[in-house]
């Protein structure tokens, strides 16, 4: 019995000593950690810091952090796998895991920052970029978080209901802190659900699910819609504006990369895939015209506030409907493109090559649910005159399929068929030249009275005197047409003006 007691006492003494040492080390590390946090991140507030040396872990509870425009709250932050030698002796931070539970992140955008505030921010940034230690974390996790973006008056501009984020192999040191992206990492994963974004005063965007990684992304269930009905929309805009209604089943990005190039934000990807979209556009032409100058697409890309390079953008199984109300007493007319399949190559606003690539759009669709339509459109973003060329062909289209649009917009009805149409135009932002070759048969025009419901006999007779009922224009009839662009209208209005002028010359 005495021998057992003699053996037990030393073991008990060792355990007591280890317990005392553990308490001492816990307290010592806690004090050093608190001191380091107060020095490096004085904005961070928390209720308690608990360190367990033997478990090699630490926990912060009830975290509050307000830095600039960002406000973060979290129930708990857990740290594990601290390298004590690096921390206590070398003053570096090397961790296995940082896990933040239930973070709530609010970003409030400040409006009209003063020059003084900008100067202070700039000075603060230069100070913060002096880092004399190394920070390394194998895994950072934010679980069950939510995010809100507010404007200067606290109106919600963006909201993410739930997100999970993981960043792997984070590295920060004195070299990386000097870069635009002040850290390096191996990979990341972001899964977010129920995202809403206020696009403008009249439209909101909603996304069911987003999955982002370093090299690829996937968006599911995208919806862009107006907050107003068609009738309300015209009451909430003083001039002509498009009302959008867009649904996209999925959007995938492959081989993506991002960073900075010459101080400009850069985004690149090899493939951008849009699957099963339905895009409806409504415009009320009874409102006053928007007389602002409309840029060509090449100019829009050229003036983006960031650098963009998409090797290929593909659109599949898509429908586009353009609806236009011209008279209040008549229903709107519409133009429909169904089964749209398209590919855009070299969608970019910069190039490292001597020859700037041509952005090329090749698309096929069923026009007005009948005619096969093919388009080949090209332009160069670096061309300051906004050069473009567009050509294509259309198969058989019956006039009755166009009458909904013709009655509403031109107060006429047509009979007969266009059996084939080829078009080819090129130009710049001001003038285009080219021609339209059309084959048609049994073509007649019926001019309507002002109410749009009855035929005006006299006007119809006069109109058909000047219309050739059967014919084929041939490649030389429209050669050399010149169309001057109305720069207050869009590119698609410009293109329609080209087609319309060629068609009118053919029919008359």
Structural write-up:
It is built from 8 helices and 24 strands. With 508 residues, it is of the alpha+beta class. The protein has a domain of 162 residues. It has a 24-stranded mixed β-sheet that branches. A hairpin with an 8-residue loop joins β18 and β19. It is elongated and about 95 Å long. Keywords: Membrane, Transmembrane, Transmembrane helix.
Strand percent estimate: over 45%
Unreliable residue stretches: 2-24, 114-128, 454-467
Oligomer: single chain
Structural class: alpha+beta
The helix fraction, in percent, is 10-25%
Query: What gyration radius follows from the Cα positions, in whole Å?
Result: 33 Å
Counting DSSP E segments of at least 2 residues, the number of strands comes to 24
Keywords: Membrane, Transmembrane, Transmembrane helix
Transmembrane segments: 7-29
Descriptive labels:
single chain; 508 residues; alpha+beta; 8 helices; elongated; disordered N terminus; membrane; transmembrane; transmembrane helix
Topology:
Elements: H1 2-40, E1 44-45, E2 48-52, E3 57-67, E4 70-80, H2 84-88, E5 93-101, E6 104-108, H3 115-128, E7 135-150, E8 156-172, E9 187-198, E10 203-213, E11 216-226, H4 230-235, E12 243-254, E13 257-261, E14 264-284, H5 297-302, E15 307-325, E16 333-348, E17 359-367, E18 371-379, E19 388-394, E20 397-398, H6 403-410, E21 412-427, E22 431-447, H7 457-466, E23 471-472, E24 481-484, H8 491-507
Parallel strand pairs: 5-7, 6-7, 14-15
Antiparallel strand pairs: 1-3, 2-3, 3-4, 4-5, 4-6, 7-8, 8-9, 9-10, 10-11, 11-12, 12-14, 13-14, 15-16, 16-17, 17-18, 18-19, 19-21, 20-21, 21-22, 22-23, 22-24
């Amino acid at each position: 019995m005495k021998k057992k007691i003699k053996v037990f006492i030393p073991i008990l003494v060792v355990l007591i000593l280890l317990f005392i040492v553990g308490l001492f080390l816990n307290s010592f590390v806690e004090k050093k950690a608190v001191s380091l946090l107060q020095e490096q991140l004085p904005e961070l507030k928390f209720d308690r810091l608990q360190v367990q040396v033997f478990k090699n872990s630490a926990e912060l509870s009830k975290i509050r952090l307000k830095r600039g425009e960002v406000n973060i709250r979290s129930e708990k932050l857990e740290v594990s796998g601290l390298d004590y030698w690096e921390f206590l002796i070398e003053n570096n931070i090397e961790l296995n895991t940082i896990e933040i539970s239930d973070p709530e992140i609010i970003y409030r955008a400040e409006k009209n920052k003063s020059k003084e505030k900008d100067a202070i921010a700039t000075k603060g940034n230069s100070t913060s970029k002096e880092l004399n230690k190394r920070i390394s974390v194998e895994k950072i996790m934010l679980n069950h978080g939510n995010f809100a973006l507010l404007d200067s008056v606290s109106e919600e501009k963006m909201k993410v209901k739930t997100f999970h984020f993981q960043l792997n192999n984070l590295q920060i040191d004195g070299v990386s802190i000097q870069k635009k992206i002040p850290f390096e990492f191996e990979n990341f994963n972001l899964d977010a659900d129920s995202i809403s974004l206020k696009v403008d005063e009249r439209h909101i965007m909603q996304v069911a699910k987003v999955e982002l990684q370093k090299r690829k992304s996937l968006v599911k269930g995208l919806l862009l819609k107006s907050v107003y009905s068609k009738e309300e929309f015209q009451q909430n805009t003083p001039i002509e504006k498009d009302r959008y209604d867009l649904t996209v089943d999925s959007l995938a990005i492959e081989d993506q990369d991002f960073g900075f190039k010459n101080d400009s934000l850069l985004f690149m990807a090899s493939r951008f895939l849009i699957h099963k979209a339905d895009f409806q556009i409504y415009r009320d032409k009874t409102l006053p015209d928007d007389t602002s100058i409309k840029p060509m697409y090449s100019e829009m890309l050229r003036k983006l506030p960031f650098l963009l390079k998409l090797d290929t953008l593909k659109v599949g199984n898509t429908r586009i409907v353009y609806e236009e109300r011209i008279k209040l007493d008549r229903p709107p007319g519409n133009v429909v493109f169904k089964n749209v399949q398209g590919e855009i190559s070299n969608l970019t606003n910069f190039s490292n090559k001597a020859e700037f690539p041509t952005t090329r759009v090749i698309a096929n669709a069923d026009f007005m649910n009948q005619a096969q339509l093919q388009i080949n459109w090209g332009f160069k973003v670096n061309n300051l005159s906004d050069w473009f060329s567009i050509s294509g062909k259309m198969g058989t289209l019956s006039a009755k399929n166009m009458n909904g649009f013709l009655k509403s917009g031109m107060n006429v009805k047509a009979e007969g068929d266009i059996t084939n149409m080829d078009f080819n135009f090129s130009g710049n932002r001001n003038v285009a030249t080219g021609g339209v070759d059309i084959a048609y048969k049994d073509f007649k025009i019926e001019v309507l009275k002002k109410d749009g419901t009855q035929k005006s006999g006299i006007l119809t007779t006069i109109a058909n005197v000047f219309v050739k009922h059967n014919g084929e224009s041939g490649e030389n009839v429209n050669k050399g047409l010149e169309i001057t662009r109305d720069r207050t209208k869009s590119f698609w209005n410009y293109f329609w003006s080209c087609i319309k002028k060629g068609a009118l010359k053919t029919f008359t």
